[in-house]
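User:
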Amino acid sequence: METFGVRYLTPEILRFLREEHTMAFVAGPRQAGKTTLGRHLLTLSGSEQLYFNWDIDAHRKQIVRHPGDFWQRQEHTSVGTPPRMVLDEIHKFPRWKRFLKGLYDEHGRNIEIIVTGSGRLDVYQRGGDSLFGRYHLYHLHPFTLGEMLSDKRGYVLEPAVFWQRVMGDDVVRGAEQGLGDIEAYSGFPEPLFSSSEMKLRRWRQAHRTLVLREDLRDLTRIRDLGIVDTLALLLPERVGAPVSINALSEDLQVNFATVKGYLETLSRLYYLFALRPFAGRLTRALRQAEKIYLFDYTEISNPGTRFENLVAVHLRKLVDAWNDWGYGEFDLHYVRDREKREVDFLLTEQHKPYALIEAKLSGSDIDPSLRYFADRLKPRYVVQVVRNPGRGGSRMNVDGVLLVGASRFLSFL
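Assistant: Predicted structure:
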């Protein structure tokens, strides 16, 4: 698994630690590879022994008993100065923010600190952030097609270069096969690189238990875990459509606020993510109902919905990476009006339409709703991503709309 330690975040975190001298926070879904990434970063500095996981009893005791110098009690052979330390799942420590503030303020110039967690690292935040100015938050996503196919794996294309590559003539070898694999097994390293249905099913069960049982127990006050588990079972069939919380509350026989809170919690724990509708100056636009997508989309049986979710996961990673790298202020939405015209995704830059993207399983005809909203929103890019582009080829321009095969488009993400 050490090979998987070289992830797209690797060079950026190394640059950040070298140049900015503050803590690097890495958040993301359970089993996306955060621990492997952290251990790899320690290996690069000769600090392998400076890995501390709050879930490990011996590590937890050492931190609690010796908060001022717990890392100095470990032998290490750091090849550079200062040494590097990883604190994994430290946000489960009830006083973790105060602990990190004191640690950084006293020793931050003498040691590089990386903090990783499967729950959101701001899950306990109330009011002002006591760590403000002491850290930068990065998001580690499961493998996307582009990262899976890349030899170096350590890159994120900046916006201008990304669009040049998509519209250029580059051919990415193995893209179609890779797309089939990532579609069937998700982007999580363990099932993806095993390519085994049996291992996927075992992994999926273990992953659900970790998130829906252990993380909910450790990070929230939710006690009726059975209802949350039932909610998770209902979600795959609701992916890709505006979610009716009222309908879910009726199915679960709990009130509206409870269901809304459960969905927000599952989002904080990176089990799912939600997209809000974009309204802007559109008349009769849907403004409230969110769409949800799962980080593990392999439970979705409908091929069209699964493909849409796969594209959503890739775009979520792209937007988070562009924001984390400082390329701009991007966000991801969808567009829908009361006449039920809809486009799956809208990337915004500084709250203005940037790229309108529709995901289709097949066909060379441009979706009418894509043209409708393109005329009104006037984004810089208009794209229809097709899973099976057919004879038309993997890329062509149709009256200002880029019609592109999914294996091509996603291979640069």
